[in-house]
Amino acid sequence: MIEITDVAPVSVPHRIRGRAWLAGWLTRVRGDDRAVCAALMAERHPVGELLGVHGGASYVLLRLEVGEISVDDLWGTDHVDPEDLAAAEPDPLVHHETEVLQHLASAHTDRVADLCGLLGSREADGMAAVPLALDRFGLRVRFTGGGVSSFDARFDFPDPVADACGLRQAMRRLFAAAGERTEDPAENPADDRAGDRAGDRAAD
To answer: What is d(CA 92, CA 75) in angstroms, rounded to the nearest whole number?
Structure first.
């Protein structure tokens, strides 16, 4: 069994965003399958001279045939079909999420807090707002303090984001909806807008 823990890349109470468990049968890869599996791993995670498949260092390659998957995360607890996992593609923002969240948390806490205006109530007034998770569908923020129990709020993008350019546009629209100014930042170079900065960080 493999246990995977997802920890938020920002400082926030209860930083563990989720856990996943993959259980199945573990076997040693031998013969011609060794080179095939090593090539597959190198395609996903290049690490130089992978696994000594051309001689030299001796490594053991193991294959996990997944039989059962369970997930407990911000959306709840559920089981995942192994075939669905095998067919799934990584979220296009997976390599940008950490940098964008850390930038928002360190440089734009006021703009993140402004998002409470989209909740339709005053329950988040006076609470600290920390960006907790980001994916192609939206931004999740955790509100803490203010004498009220902490809670998460999900702010969905109008459409799924496919790349850094789409993220930039989605963040602009999200902060604009929360009451931010909507003029073109090119006309005001001093305007350090959270949406632009977040998109620029993702593009780097």
So the answer is: 19
